[in-house]
Amino acid sequence: MSGLRERKKSATRVALSWAAVRLVVERGYDAVRVEDIAAAADVSVRTFRNYFPTKADAIAFRHRERIEQLADALRARPVDEPLWDAVRSAVQERFALGVETDGAPPDRQWIDGVRVMVEEPALAGALQKAVAGAQTALAEAVAARTGTDPRRDLYPTLVAAAVGAVVSSASELWLRADPPVPFAPLLQEGFDRLTAGLPPTSGSTS
């Protein structure tokens, strides 16, 4: 029974977050109220408040959810797989912006929603909080694979932060690209450069 209850709560949380993203894409951030989001998800404002303190937190949840699912995907990788190979595979499986978290293909609204999350100044604080919480989960997944402790060892937290930096940098470049470019190769390039020690490219200064 508790499992069913948790699944229902998770579904409501996702529905509220997606409604927030969709409405902000359609109307603009300042034109959307908590009441609008609750109505779009067919719940009361009180129910919304049970899940998210603000509309910014509801939107930022989409990003947090992706990183948390990345941590789950990393835990599911073969235990004998080298760490960075496992990280690459987990990222491509669960965090590529070309795929929704339920496996559905992307649509224009989700791409525009990512742009809102990256570019809307009012979301900066909520996104920072969401990323910090999710990267804790990722650091714990890294620690489990490497026999380290994120409370005492720098390594798992550093890996989680580096993964977040690759995804964030690739996302921003992907959103700015004109003409559009595929996202997956940007992720691949980011991890290639990271695991090579970030050597300067031609035209860069060391």
UniProtKB/TrEMBL annotation:
Parts forming coiled coils: none
A GO molecular-function annotation: DNA-binding transcription factor activity
InterPro entries in the record: Homeodomain-like_sf (IPR009057), HTH-type_TetR-like_transc_reg (IPR050109), HTH_TetR (IPR001647), MftR_C (IPR041347)
Gene3D superfamilies, alphabetized: Homeodomain-like (1.10.10.60), Tetracycline Repressor, domain 2 (1.10.357.10)
Protein name: Regulatory protein TetR
DNA-binding residues: 33-52
Keywords: DNA-binding, Transcription, Transcription regulation
Pfam family of the protein (one): TetR_C_14
Chain ranges of the HTH tetR-type domain: 10-70
Domain of life: Bacteria
